[in-house]
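Design review, sub-item: ligand-bound model
Attendees: FS, YL, KQ
YL presented the inputs for the 4-nitrophenyl alpha-D-galactopyranoside complex:
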Amino acid sequence: MTSALLSRVELRFLDAASHPSTLALDAPSAARESTASRDGLTLSAHLEQALGGTIVRATVVNRAADTVRLTSAIFEVTTGFEPAAPARFFKHGYQSWSASGGYDVTASQTHPRDTANFITRLNHQSETTRSPEFAEAQTSELFTIVESHTAPERVLAGFVGAATSLSTLTVSSPKKVVARAILDDVNLAPGAHRELDPLFIAALDESAARMAARWADAAGRWMNARVNAPFQRGWCSWYHYFHAITEDALRANLKSLEAMRSEFPLDVIQLDDGFQSALGDWDTTNSKFPGGLKKIAGEIRAAGFKAGIWTAPFLAARDSHLMIDHPDWFIMHAETGQPVRAGHNPNWTTSDDKFAYALDASNPAFRAHLRHLFTKLTRDFGYSYLKLDFLYAAAAPGRRHDPNLTRGETLRHGLEAIRAGDDAFILGCGCPLGQAIGVVDGMRIGPDVSPFWGSTASGAGDPSTVYALDAIIARSFMHRRLWLNDPDCLMLRARETRLTADERAALAATIVASGGMLLISDDMSLLDAEAGKLFRAVAQIAAEIDSNAAREPVLALDLMTTADIRGLISESADGAGAIAMLLNRGDSPARVQTSDLKLDAGEIVALDLAFDEKIEIFDTIDLPPHAARIIRLKR
Ligand code: 9PG
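KQ shared the predicted structure:
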C-alpha cells in the first residue's frame, strides 16, 4: 500500500459580498511551499517530515481591500486502503464526557444523536448540526485512526495544535479521511493573516493505541502540555452528597479524613457543586454554607490538605447576580437574539427558567471578571485546586462579542484568563479536549461514574460507571502526554450504593491501571478498615503506574475493540515487566486465554482487589461479570 498522502487543501470562505467561495491547493508538494490565490486571498501549505509522519502547516493571508469570513479549512488525506474492504475508524469524542471508540466505516450517515435535543448535541459535538458531508456517524473529533482488514498499516490523521479552532475528521469511505478546521465564519480583515492549527498524518504498522499515544506526544509537545504536576490523591464531595452537600457534612468528612490519614493518605479535599449562592456567583455561598468559602478553605488547609473547589465558569442562571448585572456577557442566539441555552438543571436555580446560559469569553470585560474571580478564589480564599466544569459552554454557537475569534479561540482565551499566571492545579471537566492542552494540569477524560453499574442499553452519555470505564480505557494514552488524566472518582462504600463488591473493585482497578488521578467520593463515616486496605493497595499501584507513564504511555490492549473484555497495559520503566488490567464490562462470566492477549510474559500473577488475593495464572483468567483483575507480568 502507498503511505497516506495529503491530496488537497481547500479553504471555504464568505467573500466580501457574503457569497460562499473556495480556494484550493491540489496535491501540495512536499518539497516546497504550495500556494493558491484568488481575489487577493492566498492559501499556502507547507509539509514537513516529523515524528514518523508528515506535519501540514497552512496559512491564509488576506491582501484584498475587504474583510472576508473564513468558514473552514479542509484537508483531504488519501489512505491507500481498498475502498471495498471492511475498515474501522476511531471515533474520538468531543469533550470530557463524550464517548470514544472503534466503529465500522460505513455509508450510513445516521447517528442516534442526530435526533437528540439541542443541549445534548451542544454537549457532545463540535457542531450542533452536522451537514451530510460531515455526518456525525462518520466523524471523529480532533484525531482519528483508520484500519483496513487488508492492510498491515494504520493511518492516523489528527490536529496536533488546537489553540485556534475546533476540528473534525470524517471517514465516509476507507479511501480517505477529510480533516477539517472549523473557522466559524470568523473575520479576516484586509492585511491580516491566520495560521491554521497543524495537522499530523502518518501510516504505520503499529497498534492503534500506540498511534494514539504518538498523536498525544506530538500534540502535547506542540502545545506545551502541563504534564509535570505531582500524582494527585484526593476526596470529592459529589458522588455521595451530590447537590445536598452542606458545610457540616464537608466538615465531618474533613475531621474523618484528618483522623484517618494513615488509612486514607490523601492530599486534596475538593468541594463540588452545591455550595454556590447561584449558578454564576462562585464567590458567595447559599444557606447550606453559612461560614462562606474563605473559612472552609482555611479549615481544610489548617488540617494539612490542599483546598479544592468546583465551578462552572462559562455558565450562569437567570437568578445569578452575574446574569442580572451583565446581560451583555452572554453568547446570543443568531436568530432570536436571546442568550444561548447550554445546560438544564432544576437543582441549579430557583428561577422558573431552569436553563443555564453560555457566557461569552470573547468579551474582554467578562475575561477581566474571570481573572478577578479566580484570583479571589486562589490568592484571597486559599483554593489551590480548581475543578472547572461545563467548559464546552464557551464554545457554544451564536453571536459573540469579538467576530475575529473562532469558538475554539473563545474557549482557549477563557481558559487562559482563568489560569492568569496562577499556579493552582487546574482540572478541566466537560471540556472540548484540544483547546485545554497547555492550560490545564488535569482533565476529566470520561463521563461521570455513578453509584450503580449502568446498562449498555441506555443512551451514551448517561452517567453510569461502565461508560466511565470505557472512556478510561479509550483515553488512557493521554495521561502525562496532554495533562494528568482524571478518570473520575472511586467509590469504596459498601452501603448507600448499588455497586457490588466486584463492581467497586472493577472501578478501582480500572482507575489505578490508568495511572490517572485518584479521588475518592464517599461519606467517610461509611468506610471501614477493609475499604482502607483496598485504598492503600490501589494507591500504591496507581503511583507506580503513573511514574511509568512519564516514559511509556498506558495503552489499551485493543483500542478499537467493541468486545466486553477490555484492558490496559503499563510497561515498567526497567523493561522487566508490566502491569495490566483486564475488565469484563459485560453481564456474563468470561474466560480469557492469556495467549490471546499476546502479552509476551514469562510469568503472570493476578491480584484480586476485592478479596486482596494473589492468584498464580497459567493459561486462563476467569472474570465474573462486572469484574476486573490487575495482573503483573514478568518478562
Ligand atoms: C456537578 C457535576 C460533577 C461531575 C461533573 C458534572 O449531562 N448532564 O446533565 C450532566 C450533569 C452533570 C455532570 C455531567 C453531565 O457532572 O462531571 O463530576 O462535578 O457536574 O454538577
